[in-house]
Tryptophan halogenase (Sphingomonas yantingensis), 501 residues
Amino acid sequence: MQAAADPVRSVVIVGGGTAGWMSAAYLARRLSHLPIAITVVDSVEIGTVGVGEATVPAIRDFLAAVELGEPDVLAATEGTIKYGIRFAGWGGEGHGFFHPFGLYGVPANGVAFHHYWLKLKAAGHDLPLGDYCLATQLAERGLFLPPSSQPGSDLGVFNFALHFDATKFAHLLRRLSLANGVAHVDGRIVDVTRGEAGVRSVQLADGRTIEGDLWIDCSGFRSLLLGEAMGVPYVDWRHWLPCDRAIAIPCRSAGVHRPFTTATAHDAGWRWHIPLQHRVGNGIVYSSAHLSDEAAEGRLRATLEGEPIAEPNRLRFVTGHRAEFWAGNVVGVGLSAGFLEPLESTSIVLIQSALERFVALFPDRGGDPRLAATYNRQSVLEFERIRDFILLHYWANRRTGEPFWDAMRALDLPESLAERVEAWRAGGVFVRREWDTFQDPSWLSMYAGFGLLPERTSPLADQLGEEELLTAFARMREAIDRAARTAEPHADFLARQGRRA
Ligand code: FAD
């Protein structure tokens, strides 16, 4: 069944936050050979959500796709390097572990490193996993090394992401988009007119009307087109992920730029610490059923490491997604399509993969339901995979005696996550699935970080004896250490990007 429609001649992006300008910059590049006009409509009056400062390494692919150089982005957004996330207090007060953007160790005789590590652990050798991961070492020592400088060995396989000022990032993308022919209209949308294919036009408060063939809804939590105009319902995941509020308070930077995000647990959620060059992004995420807004703000203020430089930004959200991400001629990108709480900094990568998927399925005519169906199936899977990974952080917690955390440990896991945990428990096996954002090393960092170990070690690891393994592990540790010693201080690297460090 093919939708009867004319060729697509115009794409209108509603919203000028991170999602809107990422969409504009990406589509302007990828569709540049087609006679398609791209317009962004947003409202300065309404503003943007104003948070979203930490990314995952895929951001580097996005920057390459839109032809932005990393040094330019670091300079324009007061950005810093991120090698992963430090989780503090999730396994109880004083406990911590690191989720790195890199591999652990090297396999031997076709057997994955973690099986040998588990075997040594079972034999009483408590070897810190982070000693076998270059990204962890760079993060903990405050160093910078570009991934490409360590070729040829799995030991050198790591990557980095960026922290950046979200407003400055949107401005940078806006400049780029306008230079690449995107039109911009500043106006508040007050009405949406529907047609046979979906949305036909939007009316602005000043009386102007904007028409379009395809619509990208980047209007934020309000979901003006996908949710309101198209009436697509929201799939609410609060029964799994009950945190529903956040407060952000940036403060002046004390000049220490740790190359990682910190996520510190508190009695009803967690706090983030994101170091930028000019300031530190701080925020508290919490369950409103377990903590009042006043108490949450007090808790955040008590932990700030510098002087606040803005009023608190108070946010409410519901973890979940729209039942359809693409309905008729409307595709939701960013918060309008769904939101997974920011524990693993996944919203921006979801924007990016939505755009990649949309271009891969780009219809030369208006909304084709067959393409939309594929898009929707893939989008739901991607959201579910990330939800499961985030949920593992909560479910595996070891904070006892706090109602929020006790309830999280007692949750009935979704089948998709329960199967992963059982396979790990039974034999140290990672279950891999289509549209996984997080790969084996990420799952290993969580299982090991929470002390969730398999019931028995793998017989595959028995092909190497304990002494042989200890020698091989010592060699790996030395190689990682040698590589880390070739790195420069993160602060020096930032200074070389032409900015203060
Ligand atoms: P918004 O920024 O809200 O933009 C919406 C746009 O729509 C605005 O331009 C607005 O003017 C426009 N608009 C709305 N209504 C109208 C109207 N009637 N007429 C005209 N224009 C209109 N993501 C990460 O990847 N990493 C993180 O570390 C991270 N941390 C987060 C922390 C919190 C507490 C929250 C809530 C989110 C976080 N996110 C994070 C998510 C990230 O902030 C968003 O994914 C990202 O900013 C994209 O937002 P958006 O562009 O979809 O929406």
Residues 396 and 409 are 6 Å apart (CA to CA). The chain has a mean pLDDT of 95.
